[in-house]
Amino acid sequence: MRFWKWLTVSLCSDLSYNNFTAGGSECHEESVTSYSATSGLVSCLQSQRCAKSRYNLFINCGESKAEVRGTTYEDDSQEATPSSFFRSDYWAYSSTSYFADDNIAAVSYKVKNTSTLSINNAQLYMEARRSAISLTYYGFCLMDGPYNVTLHFAEIMFTGNESYKSLGRRAFNIYIQGKLVWKDFNIEIEAGGVGKEVMRNFAAIVTKGTLEIRFYWAGKGTTAIPDGGVYGPLISAISVYPGFDPPASKSAGTVAGILAAVVFVVFLILVILWWRGCLVLKDKMAQDLKGLALQIGLFTLRQIKAATNNFDTANKIGEGGFGSVYKGFLSDGTPIAVKQLSSNSQPGNNEFLTEIETISALQHPHLLKLYGCCIEGNQLLLVYEYMENNNLARALFGPKEFQLKLDWWTRHKICVGIARGLAYLHEESRLKIVHRDIKATNVLLDKDLNPKISDFGLAKLDEEDKTHISTKIAGTYGYMAPEYAMHGYLTDKADIYSFGIVALEVVSGQSNTSSQKTKECFILLDWAHFLKERGNLIELVDPRLGSHFDKEEALALIKVALMCTNATPALRPQMSSVVSMLEGKVAVPVLDSAGAIMTEEKIEAMRKHFRGDEHQAVGENITKSMSIEGPQTGAASSASGNDLYPVLLDTDYWHKRE
């Protein structure tokens, strides 16, 4: 007689971490799981006889079969019990334990959305599967090798209004192949609100044909707000793609012949490359990437080519010193931006690795999301979320046909968002990061004009036991702090200085540094200091706003920006203090006098430049900060060559876009 025959339904026991052995080799649907929930591979699934090997898996969790952009997501609409095991042809799931603080007879392990979802592929998020403690999905009959696992989430049990139903909090852990890949995952925070989709990509290595994806509630979050039984893991859909090119169907003889020929050719090529000394860089790149493989999603070159229509020039949205940027769509319809780097450039390789190492360890609403990378042949590709409104520089003072009408509320929101992102990098993240290249072209805007900091190719780890970082100077003139530009003395105060410059640009609608042929160079920061001495800071506000702005907020933002650009690093505020001042939680201190001295001729020239000629070609003002031919510092190139959307102003790429 099996162990569970004498268990009663009323027994409140969590068996999710126990290891019981099934009585036979066949898999049965039971009331209590009869396998190890933590081993990663179920014995009955290992012995499953597969008619053929598979290389993908798509499950519409908690809902019936759905077609999404040519992909069929399999039916998972069966009702679960407090502890159950269900097996389909090529996948299975187990749900363990029940909601102890609710009426077990009334609890459903599937939940339905009750509001209208204005998101892509809404059919995947109308219903979801949940569990009180442990929910595990298994894919089997998979070909061994690397895979990309995409998990689809949407918080559909809470509301976004101010009622008590918005007070719920859900947090759970995610395991892939038995390894913890995300602790205390909160759908609402990652998606930026309730009723919004969020997808997370993970790399997995399949061995013995079985893949395990496990969600586990570790006791965090609310359990009875807004209602009992709303805690625990919640998943909307699962997509599994191969990280390799699936083999075509060929006879054994044909395959053997092809393999022999390929092995010989590869061996010959490797011998030639080794003889020429060309493998040193590739070997080092492979070693450096080995430790990063499981932290981010891995894409094949075939997937990237399909997403960008084979890197069609019509999809090119930018070009920089180390390659081009393309817009594309993944097979599930997700828009992406693909940053292409040249593998022949050592600085490009270094920044490629730096960006992966840095951004893969960071998660914040105001930092650009990195979906994954592709390294095949001579291709080095980074795959990001796509930003519909390009970068802040183009929106403010790019070519007129691409400028956006940013009202005061939006401008203030952008500055607060940038400040929050930097506060996370400097003070809240597990790794303390100095970005080193904060500027308007590295702030991207999504469809709702929310700012996201991008381009971490020059980022440096700020070790807490060191007063500063001594490093080669790299960045963009006009945004670099003076102590860093002149002496290479790098701290988080350098980012704070750069933020102050960007904030002045947002308020004024002007680039900090601008030059015109046959005329002298004007510095926005100098103009701001002069207006402060004259007691007329409000004149700095963009004339395009007219009178439609909050005067107190504008003055506060300008004063905070001037504090951030103080020539003495120690007098610049921490970014957390900047956030508090911009949100009105802390008063802005009185500014000291800088004692700026200017001639009347200089004053009049600056006034005409920043306030007089509304018809000047403002796009020319940012040529240096957006062009790869812009100012460079030391031996390191200006990061303007690495902007995610760095379109040169003398090209026709602006006009090719819709």
Automatic annotation (TrEMBL):
Keyword Membrane among UniProt keywords: yes
Record-listed ATP binding positions: 339
PROSITE patterns for the chain: PROTEIN_KINASE_ATP, PROTEIN_KINASE_DOM, PROTEIN_KINASE_ST
Domain Protein kinase: residue ranges: 311-591
Main location: membrane
Keywords noted in UniProt: ATP-binding, Glycoprotein, Kinase, Leucine-rich repeat, Membrane, Nucleotide-binding, Phosphoprotein, Receptor, Repeat, Serine/threonine-protein kinase, Signal, Transferase, Transmembrane, Transmembrane helix
Segments passing through the bilayer: 255-275
CDD domains for this protein: STKc_IRAK
UniProt xrefs under Pfam families: Malectin (PF11721), PK_Tyr_Ser-Thr (PF07714)
InterPro entries (UniProt xref): Kinase-like_dom_sf (IPR011009), LRR_Rcpt-Like_S/T_Kinase (IPR051824), Malectin_dom (IPR021720), Prot_kinase_dom (IPR000719), Protein_kinase_ATP_BS (IPR017441), Ser-Thr/Tyr_kinase_cat_dom (IPR001245), Ser/Thr_kinase_AS (IPR008271)
The protein's Enzyme Commission number: 2.7.11.1
Its membrane topology: Single-pass type I membrane protein
GO cellular component terms listed in the entry, alphabetical order: membrane
Subcellular location: Membrane
Swiss-Prot/TrEMBL catalytic activity: L-threonyl-[protein] + ATP = O-phospho-L-threonyl-[protein] + ADP + H(+); L-seryl-[protein] + ATP = O-phospho-L-seryl-[protein] + ADP + H(+)
Keyword hit for Methyltransferase: no
PANTHER family associated with the record: LEUCINE-RICH REPEAT-CONTAINING PROTEIN DDB_G0281931-RELATED, PROTEIN KINASE DOMAIN-CONTAINING PROTEIN
Name of the protein in question: non-specific serine/threonine protein kinase
